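Case study.
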Amino acid sequence: MIMKVLLVAESREGKLLGNINELLGFAKNLAVETAVFLVGKNDSLPKFSGRLYLAPVEKHLEYNPDGHKALLLEVVEKEHPDLIVFAHSSYGWDLAPRLAFALKVAQISEVVALADDGFVVPACNSKLRRQVKSLSPRTVLTLQAGAFPTVENGASLPEVIPVDTDTAPLVGFAGYEAAAQGGVDLSKASVVVSAGRGIGKPENIAMIAALAQALGGEYGASRPVVDAEWVEHNRQVGTTGQSVAPKLYVACGISGAIQHLAGMKKSEFIVAVNTDRDAPIGEIADVLVVADLKQFVPVMTEKLKAL
Amino acid sequence: MVREFAEAEVAPTAALRDEEERFDRALMFDRLAELGLTGIVFPEEYGGAGADYLSYAIAVEELSRVCASTGVTLSAHLSLCANPIYLFGSEEQKRQFLVPLAQGEKLGAFGLTEPSAGSDAGGTKTTAVKDGNEWILNGTKIFITNAGDAETYVVLARTDKEALKHYGISAFIVEKGTPGFSFGKKEKKMGIRSSPTMELVFENCRIPRGQMLGEEGQGFKIAMKTLDGGRIGIASQALGIAQGALEAAVNYAKDRKQFDTPIARFQGVQFQLADMATQIEAARLLVYSSAYKAGNGLSYSQASAMAKLMASETAMRVSTQAVQILGGYGYTREFPVERMMRDAKITEIYEGTSEVQRLVIGTALTR
Amino acid sequence: MKILVCIKQVPDMESKFKIAGDGKWYDSADLVFRMNEYDEYAVEQAVRLKEQVGSADVTVLSIGGDRVKETMKKALAMGCDRGVHIADNQAWAKDPMVIAGIIAEYAGPESFSCIFTGMQSQDRGSAQTGVLLAEMLGLPCVTTIVDFSYSDGRFTVKRELEGGIKALVNVQGPAVFTCQLGLNTPRYPTLPNIMKAKKKELQSLPVEHLQKIALHQKTERLFFPEKKSGGLVLEGDAADLADRLITILKQKTAVLA
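After joint prediction, the assembly is written out as follows.
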């Protein structure tokens, strides 16, 4: 029964960020009409069928929450959306509440699913879920990354409508600073790919590291691999190594000895690659890929790079 | 606060320091000083934190839960060295020696035990002979915790050879670096390997007259009073070891599956864990009760003996049981319980063996 | 300089949670409570700012029942000067708009030069309160800061963005900042400071006079997500397995966004 949604896209260094595709995927199931707002460049626009309100990034910059809020309010005036949807990103959670307050409406953050008459959001470090209902005539939402299916790049081009205001920024944006290259801290990685005894020989560590990189994470190892000095100690995961709880843990050639499990069992999603269907790690893995890692891992890495 | 610090900073290196038999003063003492723990029970005017004995007991327990060596470093420093100076020292001595100890600028140690004077402290053979304005010390002390690294030592020596055993002993404050005061071998121990244990060697060591602590001949009484307080520290250390061992056993039992079931679901294991937890709780109440008495000016000699006796025997039992629950894995150094078991044993021996504690209690009962 | 830091008391996230009788929130019995982790960084930064400026005063504020005073004492032991406890046993049922409104009602007349909050709470996790507070007070706000410096009335901060990139932002005070983990290293309260904190002012204000905004949303229920039943076992040739795994990762995780 949702009539209109307004999706908020983001650009970074002039390029459109991919999370708009998740917002489009969310909207696909609901909206009769979808409009998108973007402060960006007209050579990097989302493809969908509907109206795209575009404000020039050269003038409004990529971090200027007060300016972006003013622009959004203009668009809301024109579109009268029932839902205004952001990604729950560093841009979204910064801007959404400002809009919600200006409109005096509810904001529901980090939505992971729809519920009858409401939305489902995580609570208590994702251990629980909360079903919440908005009491306002329109609602601001932020969506959890990866919670909704993405829409593969559509072919349609939107109708581009320029939008502009002259609101002065209250904060000064002075550019970006690239990520630092430092020593490895597995506990901070959102993805960890670990090598176990199954890798067979030290030369195969390279393929584990490559898979980790393709997934945007770090590589670790189980104890026997570190003891054999194929990997340095600060990459060891387990009781005498580091304890990690990343979003994704991929255990390659690791049987699942209790010392190792103790160091990674709190990971959000666990994939095990092992030739042994009955390896103990299968008990805590979300997915067990029964395969020889020496064949599977390089193929997986290639496919990830091609995405 | 101590628990967070212990888990974040002390725990990660506990196993390694035990393996390397390495004392890390920066971590195991200087950091404690920064947190205000090295003089917990002493008044602010002497550089202490002005807190109560219960806070002290909790601090030692929390440190010992992850590293018994760190727990004893603090306990020996505070109860065995700083405390006698606080209780028996002159204003001048407190200013000169207690303040740096309380503030953690200097580490303290206590020299009582000798090769032939353990439980029989009256058998002290180290001598102190007056010579003008100085005392000359001769003798050897063994098994001294914090020795070598500590700057300040409270040492017991015989000042009157004629007097009956206990009556001719006096206490002295000796500082590292005093000519004639050196260290003997470092002991290779079964447990608390990260805590340094060494011999003190006095060879015509001259110290100023002003460094006698208390009255001449009062030494034995000072030593006994000191040990009364030290017992609370060691009882807390034992409690911490037991608590750490219990937690390790419970966590393991929940994860370890045999016969398709986590072993924590087997009644046999549950009964064992239940007994361990109950005994720890009982010991804890004894420790807190003696801490309360000590901090409120009540007589606490018997209470602290009971606490030390109960806590140390509980620590030995619980840590041994923990190794048993972890089975083969518990026997390896990958898991902390074998270290806890090795650490627990000394708590039944030092600062008054369990036998001596029983004597203290028995004598008090049948007086 | 007047500094405000807003903190929340939350349960330890390692706890085993149980749903409360009415099904709308977790049961607080048998839980160990502590300061919201993000707020520790906020308190530390507030105290550091005070130490830098010298003549500054830090007020720590928290809303909740009597129990939250314990957590406020930790903030006082870390170096805050005074505590303002807004007594409200129903705080758990209120949404960020209401909470921010209560804080704004208190803070408005106080004219703080700098306000710190954690960027989100660990239990509710809405990540809205700090920003809403700023909007209500008409102050600029920068969220998710991982670096902070102050000089002569001007704040220079870095926001943490996805992928480890940071955005450099500067703003003229007064302003509101929401703090991300890793902004600084929160100090352990030393024992002497814990003792001193016992003597610091901690006043309790009833919430009734401060709550002027009505609820904008309501929680229907709190529940446990479906347990993942065993795992999926995939067999086949490498290329096929890789395709299938990539699809699963896209669906079930945020890793391949």
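Observations recorded in class. Chain A touches chain C through 92 residues (CB under 8 Å). Residues 65-79 of chain A form the longest helix (15 residues). We will return to this complex in the next lecture.
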